[in-house]
Amino acid sequence: MSTRLQVVIDDEELEEIRRVARRHGLTVSEWVRQTLRQARRTTSGGSVERKLAAIRAAARHEFPTGDIDDMLHDIEQGYIGS
Asked: Domain residues of the chain, as ranges?
């Protein structure tokens, strides 16, 4: 399903957007869609402080671990039932 999005901009800005779209060989609509997708990908979903706090909290934990080859062997043994 598609939904129309209406954005009000002044004539000067619209003309600049048209020029940019034309340089890229795109319609204004396609240029806007691509630009919005790029903005969504590059926009962070949370604050830096919150992300750092989560990393610091995770780093405080200590869990038993072992040699990676031994752990992979144990996992494989579980798959084959031996």
From this structure: 1-63
Q: What is the pLDDT of residues 8-52, one digit of tens each?
A: 999 999 999 999 999 999 999 999 999 999 999 888 777 889 989
> SS3 for 75?
helix
- How far apart (Å, rounded) are the C-alpha atoms in residues 35 and 7? 14
The Cα 17–Cα 11 span in angstroms is 10
The C-alpha atoms of residue 18 and residue 12 are separated, in whole angstroms, by 10
Given a contact cutoff of 8 angstroms between Cβ atoms, the answer to whether 21 and 14 are in contact is no
pTM of the full predicted structure? 0.54
Calpha distance 8→28 (Å, rounded): 14
> What is residue 60's DSSP assignment?
T
